[in-house]
Amino acid sequence: MKNSISKIIVGSFVIGAVGFADAQKIDAKAKKILDDITANYNSKKNSYFKFSFGTGVNGQVNKTEPGIYYSAGDKYKLKIMDTEQIFDGNKIYNINADDMEVTIAKPNGSSSMFSPINYLSTYRNDYNVTYNGKKNVNGVNADFIKLTPIKSNGIQYVYLFVDSAKKQMVKLEQHGSNKDVAVIAIKEYKENQTLDPNMFVFDKNKFKNYIITEL
Questions:
Q1: 103-120 pLDDT tens trace
Q2: Which UniProt keywords apply (predicted)?
């Protein structure tokens, strides 16, 4: 489980609108839904998600762990098991408590962190997008949107399940070309909270016994 999480969490997450590729196909209804959710999240001072993170193979999840995600503007903090990732708007800090290691790096737009909302930005130039109707997800009559990579990137497809009435993500599934699957199912959502001013700050003094590597 730890290795699966590390592979997914260690990438970077860059927020921003990008122009559409010529060969890209985006269903108009799906685009409207995703753009509405993006606008909703961007209108908030900050957002918080509590979720379950599942991994497995052949489309079947066999292990789950709880996770939390905070975001404010382009800054975020994600924690799953003993792995934490912080983006302070400039650098990404990957913190592994089990191995007592910290890796610091600048964002790399060629990779994408698996988070509750990363595909709201990366779909804009990396995926073909189709609307697949409605599906009941945890009691929510959710809109089902499928993303298929334009170019080979190790992902076979991504499923997004959206509560369009609330303009919120309910669940997302990432299916790898190697048959691995990773799932985030959102359990709780809060917005515009009063956060610790240091929520998105990496304090080296708290990790004196860690191996810290800056790439």
A1: 998 876 544 456 667 778
A2: Lipoprotein, Signal
b/e map of 2-37 (b: 16 or more CB within 10 Å)? Answer: eebbbebbbbbbbbeeeeeeeeeebbeebbebbeeb
Locate 23 and state its tokens: 């060969």
Give helix 119-126 / helix 28-42 axis angle, nearest 10°: 140
pLDDT at residue number 110: 43
Q: What pTM was computed for the model?
A: 0.81
The residue extents of the domains of the chain are 28-214
Q: What is the pLDDT of residues 139-194, one digit of tens each?
A: 999 999 999 988 887 889 999 999 999 999 999 998 988 888 989 999 999 999 99
Report residue 197 as tokens.
């001013």
Most confident of 8-17, 91-100, 114-123: 91-100
Whether CATH 1.10.10.10 fits 28-214: no
Contact (Cβ atoms closer than 8 angstroms) between residue 145 and residue 159: yes
